[in-house]
Design goal:
This protein is an alpha+beta fold and 278 residues long. The protein folds into two domains: 111 residues, At1g16640 B3 domain (Beta Barrel); 111 residues, Beta Barrel (At1g16640 B3 domain), CATH 2.40.330. Helix content is 14%, strand content 34%. It holds the Pfam family B3. This is B3 domain-containing protein. Keywords: DNA-binding, Nucleus, Transcription, Transcription regulation.
Length: 278
Amino acid sequence: MEETDQAWNQDANPCFFQVIVKGLNTEAVKIPPEFVKHLRKDFSDKAILTGPSGEQLQVDIYMKGESMFMEDGWKQFCVDNELGDNEFLIFRYDGDMCFNVQVFNKNGLERLSLPASRTKQETAIPVCSMHLHQHKPCQEGRDLPKRKKRSLLKGSSSKHPSSTEAERLEACKAESFTSKYPYFKACMKRSNVEIVFLQPIPTSFARSYLPNSRTEVILLNSEGKHWEVTYVSDKSHMLCKGWKAFVFDNELKIGDICIFELVAKRKMRVHIFPDVEK
């Protein structure tokens, strides 16, 4: 049986489809040669797939001769979504190596959510989120991660708390952050600050406060400097184009905590708490 694929444009976003057959393309899946031209501008050896539930999974991209494949991570995507029984998949390219994957069962109906057997613990790219003034007070004796917030304040004082105490105080600030503005909190993962450079936004936050369309948002750091970043919204919600520049300019690393505070329409102030344990 030959592998079936085809590329076309749909609503200005290029797409291709695949029929998924167990043992044929559940270990790796081919990207149609005609489709590869759409990836040249953004090409990376990593890509993000968003499945029917809106959860993301990272896959590796590799070349074999003139052909391009999704491999490492693809098998897990198939397992998580119980693929391999002649499902019809549409891969829509949203830019920045992000694909939205629609799944149609053999009966022709679109699969709108994950199989019931899938659990939340299997989320591939976890996002720590905190919404709408959720406040966790610091408690004496509580174990806190050792983090400190980047600050513009310079100079010295005659009385300084110890380094460990200062770090605990700053960790407490990150833990108990509150604001009159809507906000969410995210732990930086590899997919956020290396290789693919994408920052997912919690679905409930995006649906409540952000437009349901692709648009530009402004990110501000503690110095008041700003970056224009592309926000995409569909089954997934994330910051993509421009996020990489924000990561580099603010030296974000794996383990850092960022609090995204929506201070105006399409404008977020980002509070950064570096991971000082590294």
